[in-house]
UniProtKB/TrEMBL annotation:
Residues 123-173 form the RNA polymerase sigma factor 70 region 4 type domain. GO terms for molecular function: DNA binding; sigma factor activity. Residues 23-81 form the RNA polymerase sigma-70 region domain. Residues 191-291 form the DUF6596 domain. It comes from the Bacteria. Belongs to the sigma-70 factor family. ECF subfamily. One of its GO terms (biological process) is DNA-templated transcription initiation. Keywords: Sigma factor, Transcription, Transcription regulation. This is RNA polymerase sigma factor, sigma-70 family. InterPro entries: DUF6596 (IPR046531), RNA_pol_sigma-70_dom (IPR014284), RNA_pol_sigma70_r2 (IPR007627), RNA_pol_sigma70_r4_t2 (IPR013249), RNA_pol_sigma_r2 (IPR013325), RNA_pol_sigma_r3/r4-like (IPR013324), WH-like_DNA-bd_sf (IPR036388).
Amino acid sequence: METQGAVRTRGAVEAVWRIESARVIAGLARMVRDVGLAEELAQDALVAALEQWPETGVPRNPGAWLTTTAKRRAIDHFRRNENLGRKLDELGREQRVGEGVLPDFDAVLDEEHIEDDLLRLVFTACHPVLSTQARVALTLRMLGGLTTDEIARAFLVKESTIAQRIVRAKKSLADGCVPFEVPVGEERVARLSSVLEVIYLVFNEGYSATRGDDWMRPALCEDALRLGRVLAGLMPSEPEVHGLVALLEIQASRSAARTGTNGEPVLLMDQDRGRWDQLLVRRGLAALARSEELAGGAYGPYSAQAAIAACHARARTPDETDWVRIAALYEGLAQITPSPVIELNRAVAVSMASGPAAGLELVDRLLDEPALKAYHLLPSVRGDLLLKLGRPAEARAEFERAAGLTGNARERTLLLGRAASC
């Protein structure tokens, strides 16, 4: 059995790993030009820390210790590797193997390059050659510092499934000869959207869990927000990066008010706004202002959603919400990224600005949309509008249909409760 000291040390190791792993992996990846190998070497350093720190104590600079240990593992790897000469050539170090000359690891893993390395790692982990699920898993593993088990529990899938996704992702990157670099020009714009999508997907799964018994999974929200903030620091001139961060900050500010005492969902209009985190609201509004400044007042998909969230954040009570502006913002968002889901959200805003009949008219136009056939919020919204129009029997049927479509137990209970109240 582990002593209390050993347990504390293990906790310290895990905390350090969560903070430092991305930096260690990023520096190694530039050195070895193989993200998969870099992650394995960093994991070796983690194992060494778990073995040694309980006896020696946590070092004064644990991040440097991990980097140094990983570097030694890399040197050992190259010395064992029969293809050392080829690897050295790839690194531009054309030396003969027999001389035992290795890359200047201290120069490769210096602090001066760490931000560039992290940005390279972000774009590599989110490369479009990978499936969306693989990008999410690899990003959380390499940049979020999460274990395979933690990722699996967060998404309610088997650990073996996540492990296979990560292994296949590394293989795809290697087989595709994906360079460890930051893309430029038009490719950079296209690839950045993939990076932002991954962070947004992680946050959304934490904010409104699609499966399981919990309405929210706060740890995923925190991981996504941390990744977003890191990306904003690495790419300070990108408007949509700040737009995404603004959206996540404002959404996260409501977290404490989104669940009741027993974990049941509390919808936006019913939330106690005094429980909204005003620090996160201020940070979100500042990030939105920065995005607007960089884009000259124009909105991209994430900054437009952040502007919508800001309308709610600025309203001290539900009645003060500027629904006319929200409806206009959704209309603009629909032009940027046409989507039936956005149209459904616009219908809600229109119903609040112009009455439930106007909203229902827009919702009914979406009933034959293939993409919304299994989307539980369509009948949920329709049920709400029917109830406001004094048509409870129809509303009840819609709430029951919505309950049958959702995969989240908490949300199902909420919807069945609404159906019963009709």
